[in-house]
Fold Protein DETOXIFICATION.
Amino acid sequence: METPLLNGSLTSGNGDYPPVRSYNDLKSVIWIETVKMWTIAAPIVFNMVCQYGINSVTNIFVGHVGDFELSAVAISLSVIGTFSFGFMLGMGSALETLCGQAFGAGQVHMLGIYMQRSWIVLIVTCIFLMPIYIFATPILKLLGQEDSIAEYAGNFTLLVIPQLFSLAVNFPTQKFLQAQTKVQALAWIGFVALALHIPLLWLLIFVFRWGTNGAAIAYNITNWAIAVAQVVYVIGWCNEGWNGLSWSAFNEIWAFVRLSIASAVMLCLEIWYMMSIIVLTGHLDNAVVAVGSLSICMNFNGWEAMLFIGINAAISVRVSNELGSGHPRAAKYSIYVTVVQSFLIGILFMLIILIAKDYFAIIFTNSKDLQLAVSKLAFLLGITMVLNSVQPVIGGVAIGSGWQALVAYVNICCYYIFGLPLGFLLGFKANMGVTGLWGGMIAGTALQTLLLLIVLYRTNWNEEVEQTLDRVRKWGGQVMSKEETIGVV
């Protein structure tokens, strides 16, 4: 029995979609899922751009202090900061699975407990990451940085340790709000934080003349302001999901730690894979041009990544909510619509890059050699953008479904057993330089994307709903029986 909803869509008796049997049904599903996905994704994308902007603005202000200071701070934020950010984001992503599925199952009261559990786990994680900050100078020297830059960057890294701990509060509250699609608040908080960060940098660096110390203080204040603002919003405006501090946060904590580590490993394997190409390129002949041209390409790729990080979070919320609600077909359809749309966006970015391949490097450099090198890499950048348009969607599905461990194993095989060695062989043994390195690593990404698409195609979403309901029961929620919630795909 199909029942029309108020928004014009059709649902089966349990609230799930009916099978798509006509062109009109297909159009309805595409429109509904597009609206639902972008309603979540757009504010998250805006928030991510604002947070990315905080780092960029910090580098810009420090650049007006001096080139040496800029190099040191940029290295600190891009090497140490990126590593800790990626690991903490991965640890916090376990909350996307649990909060999204609990919210879909109607167990909203569990979200606050899960968030507190994540706070505990991430604060302990910060303590384990602190040696990287304390010994940043010898670590950077080991990675080949000049002694003077490594020492200055190490001092700056020590000063931004408070920012590391802000992530332990920031990410869990962010995932708590995303699971309930309360993402407008995140967008406003990110915007206000960026707007206030700019005058704060000017005040501390130039008015108080504190230089990079002032930049570090401003960086800490802004990031903690974001974390505190999110907590205030949760406590003040999310009464259904937040019921105060609870000792239940310590229940099943080891199972939570395992899921968090799997999430962190999955994400970090991807981040380190892309970082390794920069390290390897530094060992090529004419490394200055090679690293410079690759860095320009990666900068453009990084801005595209902000868009797909938002889509990643949105599809994770959609999938986890629908699985928790017992709607296997809705989960499947949301994935199909999002993958196709993301792929088309990736194609658009690739076409823009190929059309502007002889010109876009001018934004970064006046060097004709660098501009020519970037132009030669444009085709690889375009392919990377297409792959990176689909891959984050699959990563979001993995988080929403709780497949982090599976994806981690796939990443190890495709990236580090296949892609990285192939890139090394093409780059150094076949003398193809940065083109060979990047081409080999693209092959690893393509293989990973293909394998995960096969996994998606072969997934039994009814079984995924069953596993979701079992997970919610195990970790503290009470849901309806499987017979009451599960539809048939």
Notes: Residues 1-10, 477-489 have pLDDT under 50 and may be disordered.
